[in-house]
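Researcher: Good morning. I'm working through a list of sequences from a screen, and I'd like to move beyond sequence-only analysis. For each chain I'm collecting a predicted structure so we can compare shapes side by side. This is the next one on the list. No need for commentary yet; just the structure.
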Amino acid sequence: MYISQELRKKNIAEYLLYMWQVEDIIRAYGCSLSRLRHEYISQFDYDEEQKEDLTDWYGNLIRMMNQEGVREKGHIQILRIIVQDLSELHAMLLESVKFPFYTAEYYKVLPFIVELRNKGAHSDENEVETCLNALYGLMMLRLQKKEVSAETAHAIGEISTLMGMLSDYYLKDKTEGLNFDE
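Model: Good morning. Structure tokens for this chain:
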């Protein structure tokens, strides 16, 4: 909860990846708040009030996951909306001539997106989802201490750069607004 609040203010892509991990943690505990409280939250070095706040936060997420039918897989609606917002911003940045560095980075990443889709990424995903799923996949591989090829590391580096730029534009759009007109 505390990490997510900071990430949401600073980097929306990192926030999404963190929240996807939180969803997986909830699933690992069988969507059981009591198990999460006793086996997971209790490990944190927080005072009792912070632990109660964290328990409430996880409880709300569990309720959303149950109500939205994403106990087994998928993401809660509030996260899907953010991905859609990022996808729409991505399209607007590419359509505008005012963001040449973003467009250039996109064209560096496009072959990797195509390759990921050819390797079995869901065809109904938008490009932003494909990129986020690639970053999440790498994060999971690293947690499992699995090897990552040099080619994969390079691709993920480019994807990470693009998602970082998109996150920066997202934050700027939310705080100052972006001007897409010529």
